[in-house]
C-alpha cells in the first residue's frame, strides 16, 4: 500500500508562488501515474494536474501556463509548482495514485491579500 504525505501549502498573496510536494512510501512509486487535485469549500474535488509514469503531463485549463507538475522517482516525490496564484486557487490540495485509490491528507493553499 502506498502512503502519500503532502507539504508546502500556506498563505500567499495574489501573484505569488508555492511549491507543493507529495512524498510517497513504497518501492513501486515510479510505475504509477500521479495526480494533484484540489477541493475548495462547497465545491467538488477537481483534477489540477497529472503526470504519467513516463513523464507525460496534463493540466486543468484553469491552471495551464501557471502550474507545473513534475516527479522525482529517486526521491519518490511528486511536485506541483504553482506560479501567478489567484484567489480562486484557494483550496485544499491533495495528491493521489488513482490506480490504487490512495490519497494524501491534503495541504491548505490560501491566496489572499
What does it look like?
- This protein has 113 residues and is mostly beta strands.
- Helices cover 0% and strands 49% of the residues.
- The protein has strands at 4-7, 10-12, 18-24, 34-39, 46-51, 57-59, 67-72, 77-82, 91-97, 102-103, 107-111.
- The strands form two sheets. Strands 2, 4, 5, 6, 9, 10 and 11 form a seven-stranded mixed sheet that branches. A four-stranded antiparallel sheet has the order 1-3-8-7, with no helix packed on it.
- The radius of gyration is 13 Å and the shape is globular.
Summarize this, please?
This protein is mainly beta and 113 residues long.
Q: What is the first-to-last residue Cα distance? A: 40 Å
Helix and strand content put the structural class at mainly beta
Assembly type: single chain
Instruction: Please tell me what the overall shape is.
Output: globular
Amino acid at each position: 500500500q502506498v502512503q502519500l504525505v503532502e507539504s508546502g501549502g500556506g498563505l500567499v498573496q495574489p501573484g505569488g508562488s508555492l511549491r507543493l510536494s507529495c512524498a510517497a512510501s513504497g518501492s513501486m512509486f515510479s510505475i504509477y501515474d500521479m495526480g494533484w487535485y484540489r477541493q475548495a469549500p462547497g465545491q467538488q474535488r477537481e483534477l489540477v494536474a497529472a503526470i504519467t509514469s513516463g513523464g507525460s503531463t496534463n493540466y486543468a485549463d484553469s491552471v495551464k501556463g501557471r502550474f507545473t507538475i513534475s516527479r522525482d522517482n529517486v526521491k519518490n516525490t511528486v511536485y506541483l509548482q504553482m506560479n501567478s496564484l489567484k484567489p480562486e486557487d484557494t483550496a485544499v490540495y491533495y495528491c493521489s495514485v488513482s490506480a490504487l485509490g490512495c490519497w494524501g491528507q491534503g495541504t491548505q493553499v490560501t491566496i489572499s491579500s
